[in-house]
């Protein structure tokens, strides 16, 4: 604790905490709570059995009733403590329960069945993480299908976007040609056309190209992005032209220069763009909602959204599915959060 | 990559190095043309036609009737007096939402950025704490909070325990709206915090040192140095937040479905429902409505580009 305290109190190099420091740290700690607690609550809840989820008020950790093994019986019995009567304090296993009465067995005396009233018994519970919510997803729903659709869209769209945008960025940063300014203006112009305001005609074009209800209908329309082009162009401009000239002396073709020199040298910018693209594609919702109407084409986001409508009360499956949808992004966040921060700061989003 | 290399080499021999740039640009330009510029033009045609056919040739010309339908109102402030009352409900909901959401979010983002910019320990960690929800998908955000806010959820359990008593949050129109604003702020605040923090860190240290020399107090330093120097970043953040706020759809749609009633139906949901979810599919009306939204967004984007350019120049 001492170390934690000295860690927290060491500020401003003066050794003493100003009251504003206290306020700041209080705010930040409240921030941790507000940002993480809902997610922690979701994950904990997803490990609760259906009974436990129905319980009100809810308990923090997932609990399940413990069981006792009784000699001579195949299945373990639900465990209770007797809280009233002769057997007070004893642990018993319940064999039957009906109409307010229960039949129990004391483990040390497996042959005798004792009748008690239900209010003499208190269930023994321990923390137990129920995994059936998760296994159920694979049995009852086409979960792997949705997972695959999301993964396919995310990976293909990201690779396509990187290729197409870096080619354009290369042309706009390393060539002097007539019309370069107009092309740059065109790219800036597309900034003003968000997908949300051209949904109807976009739908027509995608349908006419035969991509309605196809994963490609989600992948291709967003493959070229103005911010992607700009981000890569800003970076490629800083690559010295001498390197290109040297390669041209060695009779390297322009494509080879692009593929073998420019791409590897732009790796940091490409990595940032790749992370942004992965996040955007994995979380994308409105356009897939319009293009993909058949259940077998659903992405995870669409499946989650439609199941919450259909299965209004099936929280166990829904919670587990939400956690699995969140997991890949959480993993990306943990490993790459530094790049994400710089990426967002330099592009202002997608 | 030889599939691309060989034709590119042949092309290079034919047109020369400099004109090869167009070959590199081609895929991008085709995509922009097909999925950005062509739709903008087609959108105008859709807005001028009626019926529920997708193909433009099958759609009857109706001139400006779609706009007339949308704009037919006795009193624009009262959705009930409008022919297309759902549109105006969505418009006013969006206006209320954007004002609240952008105001609260940018305010808290600024506060958070200022605190993160102090000499605190573990700044990187705290920064990512606030940024974390930005990465979550809208549907996940909606479900996380729906689970907390449901009738027998953890928030109501807490309120019961304190004696206040639970509320059925998402069934009440006012509360559903308040919570929609809340989850949207929760999910996006970290993004703007990050941009504002970068803006704060770009303010040169010596300006503050000079202020210290002049014995300017903390509040005065903030008012006279931090705020003016942060103003351009602040403006960019405001405009960006407005642009995104107007287009709010995903998380609120998954959260409340636009309800109860139309309490949380925003303009993009109106477009989606008229054009895609309902039957008949009123593409014309949806296109006309999206043209109106596009007008607002173009103005906002132009302002943003203008400010960004001034920033770069100055």
List the helices and strands and how they pair.
The complex is a heterodimer of chains A (350) and B (314).
Chain A: H1 2-9, H2 19-46, H3 50-54, E1 63-65, E2 67-68, E3 77-82, E4 91-98, E5 101-106, E6 109-117, E7 121-123, E8 125-127, H4 132-140, H5 143-174, H6 180-190, H7 199-208, H8 215-219, H9 226-237, H10 241-249, H11 254-265, H12 267-283, H13 286-291, H14 300-310, H15 315-347
Antiparallel strand pairs in A: 1-8, 2-3, 3-4, 3-7, 4-5, 5-6
Chain B: H1 2-15, H2 21-47, H3 65-71, H4 85-116, H5 123-135, H6 138-149, H7 154-162, H8 173-201, H9 205-213, H10 218-246, H11 250-256, H12 267-277, H13 283-313
Helix pairs in contact in B: 2-13, 3-13, 4-8, 4-10, 4-12, 5-8, 6-11, 8-10, 8-11, 10-13, 12-13
Walk me through what this model shows:
The complex is a heterodimer of chains A (about 350) and B (about 325). With about 350 residues, chain A is α+β, with helices and mostly antiparallel strands. Chain A folds into three domains: about 1-45, no CATH class; about 65-125, SH3 type barrels, CATH 2.30.30; about 140-345, Orthogonal Bundle (MetI-like fold), CATH 1.10.3720.10. In chain A, about 60% of the residues lie in helices and about 10% in strands. Chain A has helices spanning about 1-10, 20-45, 50-55, 130-140, 145-175, 180-190, 200-210, 215-220, 225-235, 240-250, 255-265, 265-285, 285-290, 300-310, 315-345; strands at about 65, 65-70, 75-80, 90-100, 100-105, 110-115, 120-125, 125. In chain A, strand 4 (about 90-100) and strand 5 form a beta hairpin. In chain A, helix 12 runs antiparallel to helix 15. The two termini of chain A are about 45 Å apart. Chain B is mainly alpha-helical and about 325 residues long. Chain B has two domains: about 1-45, no CATH class; about 50-315, Orthogonal Bundle (MetI-like fold), CATH 1.10.3720. Chain B is built from 13 helices and no strands. In chain B, helix 2 packs across helix 13, helix 4 (about 85-115) packs antiparallel against helix 10 (about 220-245) and helix 4 packs across helix 12 (about 265-275). The two termini of chain B are about 45 Å apart. The model of chain B has no long low-confidence stretch (mean pLDDT about 90). The chains are: A alpha+beta (about 350), B mainly alpha (about 325). The interface between A and B is large, with 102 and 102 residues.
């Amino acid at each position: 604790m001492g170390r934690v305290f000295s860690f927290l109190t060491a500020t401003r190099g003066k050794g003493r905490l100003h009251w504003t420091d206290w306020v700041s740290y209080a705010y930040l700690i409240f921030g941790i709570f507000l940002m993480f607690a809902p997610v922690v609550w979701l994950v904990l809840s997803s490990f609760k059995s259906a009974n436990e989820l129905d319980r009100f008020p809810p308990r923090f950790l997932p609990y399940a009733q413990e069981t006792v093994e009784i000699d001579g019986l195949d299945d373990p019995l639900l465990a209770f403590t007797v809280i009233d009567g002769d057997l007070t304090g004893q642990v018993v296993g319940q064999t039957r329960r009906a109409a307010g009465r229960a039949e129990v067995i004391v483990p040390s005396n497996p042959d005798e069945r004792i009748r008690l009233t239900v209010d003499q018994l208190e269930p023994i519970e321990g923390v137990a993480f129920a995994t059936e919510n998760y296994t159920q997803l694979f049995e009852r729903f086409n979960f792997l299908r949705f997972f695959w659709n999301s993964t396919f869209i995310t990976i293909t769209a990201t690779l396509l976007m990187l290729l197409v945008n870096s080619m354009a960025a290369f042309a706009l940063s390393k060539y002097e040609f007539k019309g370069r300014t107009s092309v740059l203006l065109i790219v800036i112009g597309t900034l003003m056309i968000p997908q949300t305001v051209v949904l109807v005609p976009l739908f027509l074009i995608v349908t006419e190209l035969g991509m309605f209800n196809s994963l490609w209908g989600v992948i291709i329309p967003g493959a070229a992005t103005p911010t992607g082009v700009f981000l890569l162009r800003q970076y490629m401009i800083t690559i010295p032209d001498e390197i290109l000239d040297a390669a041209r002396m060695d009779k390297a073709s322009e494509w080879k220069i692009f593929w073998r020199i420019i791409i590897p040298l732009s790796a940091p910018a490409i990595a940032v763009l790749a992370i942004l693209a992965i996040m955007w594609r994995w979380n994308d919702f409105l356009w897939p909602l319009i293009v993909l109407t058949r259940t077998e084409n659903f992405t995870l986001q669409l499946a989650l959204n439609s199941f919450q409508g259909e299965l209004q009360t099936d929280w166990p499956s829904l919670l587990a599915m939400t956690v699995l949808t969140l997991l890949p992004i959480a993993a990306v966040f943990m490993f790459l959060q530094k790049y994400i921060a710089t990426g967002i700061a330099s592009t202002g989003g997608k | 990559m030889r599939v691309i290399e060989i034709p590119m080499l042949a092309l290079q021999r034919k047109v020369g190095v400099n004109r090869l740039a167009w070959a590199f640009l081609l895929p991008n330009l085709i995509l922009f043309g097909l999925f950005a510029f062509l739709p903008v033009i087609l959108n105008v045609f859709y807005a001028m036609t009626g019926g529920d056919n997708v193909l433009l040739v099958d759609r009857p010309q109706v001139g400006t009737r779609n706009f007339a339908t949308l704009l037919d109102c006795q009193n624009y402030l009262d959705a009930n007096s409008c022919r297309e009352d759902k549109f105006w409900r969505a418009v006013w909901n969006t206006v209320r939402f954007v004002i609240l959401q952008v105001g609260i979010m940018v305010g808290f983002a600024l506060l958070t950025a200022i605190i993160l910019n102090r000499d605190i320990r573990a700044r990187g960690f705290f920064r990512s704490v606030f940024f974390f929800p930005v990465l979550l998908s809208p549907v996940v955000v909606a479900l996380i909070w729906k689970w907390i806010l449901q009738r027998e959820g953890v928030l109501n359990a807490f309120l019961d325990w304190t004696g206040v008593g639970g509320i059925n949050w998402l069934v009440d129109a006012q509360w559903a709206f308040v919570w929609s604003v809340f989850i949207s702020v929760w999910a996006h605040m970290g993004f703007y915090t990050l941009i504002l923090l970068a803006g704060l860190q770009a303010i040169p240290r010596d300006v503050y040192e000079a202020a210290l020399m002049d014995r300017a107090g903390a509040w005065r330093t903030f008012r006279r140095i931090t705020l003016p120097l942060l103003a351009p970043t602040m403006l960019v953040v405001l405009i960006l937040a407005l642009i995104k706020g107007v287009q709010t759809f995903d998380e609120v749609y998954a959260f409340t479905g636009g309800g109860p009633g139309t309490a949380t139906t925003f303009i993009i949901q109106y477009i989606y429902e008229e054009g895609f979810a309902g039957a008949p599919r009123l593409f014309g009306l949806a296109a006309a409505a999206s043209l109106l939204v596009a007008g607002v967004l173009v103005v906002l984007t132009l302002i943003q580009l203008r400010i960004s350019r001034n920033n770069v120049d100055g």
